[in-house]
Amino acid sequence: MTDTTPAVERSPILRVATDPTPTGRETAYETARSRADSVPVVRTGPTGITAYDPLVLATVDGRTAFHPGPDHEAIAEIVSALETGELRSDDAAAIVEHEPETRSLPVPETGPLAAGRRDVLGPCGWVNPLAPSDYDLVSPERDASGVQDIGLLGRGRGDAAADENVGETWAEIRETDGDPVVVVNANDTDGRQQIDRTLLESAPIAVLDGIATIAEHVGAADAVLYVNETETGLHRHLEAAIDAAEDHLSVVPQLVAGPDEYRAGAPTAALEALEGNDRIEPRIQPPSPAVHGLYGRPTAIHSVRTVLQVRRALQDGTPTDAGERDPGTRLFAVTGDVSAPATVELGDDDTLESALEAVDLEGTLKMAAVGDVFGGITRTLDVDATRSGLAGAGLGTEGVVELLNGDRCAVATAGERARFAATENSGRCVPGREGTKQLTELLRDVYRGSFDLAKIRELGRTMERTSNCRIGAHAPRPVTTAMDEFEPEFRAHADGRCPSGTCSDKL
């Protein structure tokens, strides 16, 4: 049975920060519970730092000892000490002092948890995911009108207002006739992208709280939380969170599963899936979903990240206009050639280099793909973690920093992503259907001895300007940015040589 004891008010207490879904073997949480007598043991969600998973956190009177990945014997010793009111310090990665009733994970001064900041990530790994009393709920007292005019931008590929002012979307919904609905799009099959899953595992009630604030503001009585059909463990976890929180929320979302397809994560393709259509493809716009969305209703389609940025702005009390900057923070999944991936949160005064502090790179960094599978390729991470900084560097804003070491080939990396676009596009528009095929063929030609840089660039410009879907519009980005950074490698391949020594014909 899930322990719903409010974690933030207990001392001493033992938290186990890990995936909340059962694994079929004795977990660190189960070991700790079997050893504990008088000390409560709470399974929180993951912190986002997978190298620490499971992270055992022992707390006594405003002091917490951090024990990453302890074995069963170590867990027994940690519990035994805690039963007497003591913290084991000799094998702790850190001991942090904090306010006794803090609702945000105390952050060590060093180590991967110290990378960036923990605003939206604050509850992750610290609160009981299924206990409403562990959260400072905002929806019972206010709606999202407090962030209407601060210029907050949508976050992530699944958001219909990605990189656009969400307040303007809400205003359009409020001005449109019909019964509004809120859709939170958490269906992403890209294995690089773990941000929304981390948030849903660790702070699901915060997500539900944010959904209710947006629904109240746009006048929606209905909301949908759209997830991937294959993640059944996450479904059970979210259903438990909805059951736990429903008496505290004015609008309770319906949990709906969608196809395990990359294209089904696009905002308007998600609407097609939710309506039960056999063909999953993005809709032609206009009209926008804000005017004609789910079953023709005015619809706000947001990502989990956007919802929590809205909630965080309301928690801060009096958000201010950030002007040309990017209000709020941005979350990034740091993955690739690393020993363990991590989720980090960066502010508008941080650069992507800060994300390196959260992971151990395997080998020497050669390049990074920033965005998602169609992110831009860059040699440097000295880029502001804002929409304008990322876009100005030709990178994506979807929230992935994929670190690639010296064993990687820039041409093969670009080619694999072009081939993925040719396979996964919906086929609805010519640039997406035919352009991605042509792009793949032009990269195959490089291996055959022909590198037509001008032709590739012109094709990329055409696709970016005329594609109806984001796959077609973004597919050229990894190719053109890779050529910008590694043109000599492309020419070497045309001459029959891979400078990295890792590929022959990857396409």
From TrEMBL:
From the UniProt entry, list the residue stretches annotated as the region Disordered: 1-42
Q: What Gene3D superfamilies has UniProt attached to this entry? A: NADH-ubiquinone oxidoreductase 51kDa subunit, NADH-ubiquinone oxidoreductase 51kDa subunit, iron-sulphur binding domain
Q: What SUPFAM superfamilies is this protein classified in?
A: Nqo1 FMN-binding domain-like, Nqo1C-terminal domain-like
Q: Which InterPro entries match?
A: Nuo51_FMN-bd, Nuo51_FMN-bd_sf, Nuop51_4Fe4S-bd, Nuop51_4Fe4S-bd_sf
Top-rank taxon, per record: Archaea
Keywords from the UniProt entry: 4Fe-4S, Iron, Iron-sulfur, Metal-binding
**One annotated GO molecular function:** metal ion binding
Keyword set includes Ribosomal protein: no
Residue ranges of domain NADH-ubiquinone oxidoreductase 51kDa subunit iron-sulphur binding in the record: 411-456
Nucleus found in the keyword field:
no
Among SMART domains, the record links this protein to:
NADH_4Fe-4S
Pfam families associated with the record: Complex1_51K (PF01512), NADH_4Fe-4S (PF10589)
Q: Which PANTHER family match?
A: NADH-QUINONE OXIDOREDUCTASE SUBUNIT F (PTHR43578:SF3)
Family under the similarity heading: Belongs to the complex I 51 kDa subunit family.
Name of the molecule in the record? NADH dehydrogenase FAD-containing subunit
Source organism of the structure: Natrinema zhouii
